[in-house]
Amino acid sequence: MSGPQAEGKGGGMPPEMPPETTPGNGRELSRRDFLRRAAGASAIALTGVGLAAALLDTSGPPASDVGTSAKGLGDFSLAELRGKPGRMAIVRGLADPKAATPDRRAMLERALAALGGLGAFIKPGDRVLLKVNAAFATSPALGATTHPDLVAAVADLCLKAGAASVALTDNPIHSPESCFALTGIAEAAARSGAKVILPSENLFAPVSVPASGAVGGRLIRDWPALAGAFKGVTKLIALSPVKDHHRAGASMTLKNFYGFLGGRRNVFHQDINGIIAELALLVRPTLCVLDGVSVMLTNGPTGGSLSDLKAMHVLAVTTDPVAADAFGMELLGRALTEAPYIRLAETAGAGSADYTSLTPQFLDLGA
Amino acid sequence: MRLVLNIVAARRLSQVFFVLLTLWLCAVATLGASFWRLSGWPVNFILQLSPLTALGTLLTTHTWYAPLLWAVPVVLLTAFLGRVFCGFACPLGALNQAVGWLARRVTVNFPGSRGAALRARLADNRHSPWQAAKYYLLAFLLAAACFGSLQTGLFDPLPLLFRSLNMTIAPVLDAGFQALFLKPRHYASAWLLFAVFAAVLGLNMLRPRFFCRYLCPLGALFGFLNRFAPWRMGKTDDSAHGECGNCTLCDTSCEGACRPSGVLVASECLMCMNCLDACPKGRMTFAGRASAGGEEHLPEPSRRGFLFAAAAGALSAPLWTIGGLAGQDAGTGRNPLLIRPPGALDEARFLARCLRCGQCMRVCPTNVIQPALSEAGLQGLWTPVLNYRLGSSGCQVQCVACGNVCPTAAIRPLTLDEKLGQGKFAAKGPVRLGTAFFDRSRCLPWALERPCLVCQELCPVSPKAIHTRTSFEPIRFGLASLVGVEGRRLSLSGLPKPTVNLGSGDYYLRPAGLVSMNSPEAGLKRINAAVWAEAGQGFTLDAEPDPRQGWKLAPGADVEVLVRLQKPYLDAARCIGCGVCEHECPIAGLRGIRVSFENESRSGPGRMLV
Predict the structure, then answer these.
(1) Can you tell me the mean pLDDT for A65-84?
(2) Considering only alpha carbons, which residue of chain B is nearest residue A302?
């Protein structure tokens, strides 16, 4: 026995019985105690053997656990249009862009009316996701993000067409809450009854883009994308401003899909055209609205000054994202070759780089 | 039924209220408009109650900053009623008390008599001369403050609690729910912050309210402030109550260890009111007279101890400067990564005000404001620094949240106009946090000959501080010979399997060896599509090769592949140091563009550019 008890009791004396915490402790071993202890020891031993046998891994860990991703984010294009030329309407808002404030809603309604109304695309019960460009926490006046008036108009028209729900999302550069708040998009959503889906971590899941022609199968492989925002979604509408972009040539509809990616997505800038072409395959929208009311001609895609913008008062609505961007290049006054991803996306089968092949309807709101 | 609220129950209710209020104010310090976001809540209210913060900044700045006026009612309350703040309001005190109670509650359930537990408690709550330690600490801190170094926030329980909750507990608890933050929050050296917090709480196992009794400089300040309190605890020996039987039950439950049964140490009484409840004869009173058992004020006062502590504090401030641990001026020995939030005062005035409460780090929407571990020297431990590698983005241009929550204006509350240099601040220009520098040995276009340009894309100023110059450079193993030409389509041979996407639009073809003095772009044709096969390579160009531009179209002619590089340059006069470029640089480890403090606005003239 150790020190204190032996000393305290002056040797020889049996120590006071400690409270029983383990069976048989401090007493002569009885048969009953022996059996209880043997059973306890066996249970521990068996648990060890059982765990080892049940979870035995003879091969060790693989180099990585990739290759189980979903293929893209989905095809939301209209079934009756697949394999056929898309549909397109282009509205000019005012003869003199400087004369009055633009009415995006009127322009949108005019374009949609020419295409048979939004009801031709959104059916009652549809769950609509709007992909806005909310990349930067800046004022809508600076034109770096989707204009809140357009968001409100589209969301409102979708709900009027019978959509069960309208949500909007983006994974922006700046802090998401600030982006949606400062761009006025959150307020527009609240006003029109759309829900803002903030890109929280748990909405991202790895996806891959299968190869199609020379595009795909290369960059977006097991890459985190905003898949959670697509839960239950039946229609996708992209709302994109027309902006200058030094590296890519321009940022419009397809570049807007960059906002579906998570992770350290900036590594893809090494192959900017390759990645944007893959984005055209990552997800196929039902409808694209390209907002050329106020076009960012310089210092894009952030802008930052009113002098970077030019009032053009043009709005295009189309089912073909590639055609939308091809038309956008015309608004920017740039050759199609300055944004090589447009042709790449066409070769991958994502749409037509010749928007005139869609026989677009040219409409004039001012007339 | 009559509801009787005795004073101990009232004290407990009050403590629960203040703890919940603290948790609520921590939770709502997130930018946003809904009621559970930062929409008008007084998130600094608890912090502003501290007279130690008010006194510390008074000594360093010689002013009483208006938002700290909340400390005045606390001073008044303490002067007349004693340390009611400690007993009824201090949220850290309440947590300490709860942990101490839990730790001892367990021992009561252990075998042995109730008597043994009471004896153990009596020993726990015996007055100790070591309770003087906090007064020495206070003397040290106030002396340092007299010389311009505000260190009170390191030990003041209110900043200590806020930074612990906001930077260690909240991010860990929220990681699963994502109710407060969209992305899990990261705080550099959170482990150390938590270790301190865990130690403060854990010490309650040694003695109840250990921190409050031995370490808390705010408690020590209250101990001075209640020197002349007319009302205080004490026992009565009078004809009505009879003589005290010295059962020491009052001592047994005394949280402050202020010896209510004997000579009361008045400065130590935390106003827990337990003695009122514990006395079986109701002899304990809160009254306008001294205790019948006698009364002294401070525990074992030692003038030498005070002098020593004050001298050490007074010396610490200049020693920090001499030791170069916190360079006052941007020229000498300052850590290049010491980048302060927008609106931060110059370093000396900043350190005279910063409490390290962490409110700026909590509210920052991009999580880029981090507690300094070594960046600001020992003197600047846990002061806010911007770390552009952490967080979800750089310093957001259109955000002034940090300065608007700073309780002491160490970070001035800027308006957007002032931050961006607009309106009446146009002449002054935007607030600069530092300057970005390219590391050409790591930048993709500069070092690895790969196109990139993320930094230029995201530079938020107009015109952008990052601009480019385009060059075309031959790629490695890019030589091939022409096999055949068919309009814009070329067949080549000899090109090894490429490691880059030659058909991406970033690559060009040109006759080999073609050098033109007049136009570096002569003869260049963009490759629109490329097919590689062992047998031969097919290229589609964006235009037909033109013999007038030096193309030889006969089979066997040599051609070379070039990459078009937009190489980034920095216009330092336009850079505001927001760090979005550094944050977004795809070189994940040591970034290809990095911001350091040079040219920051707060350093004043001579900061870098002339």
Answers:
(1) 84
(2) B460
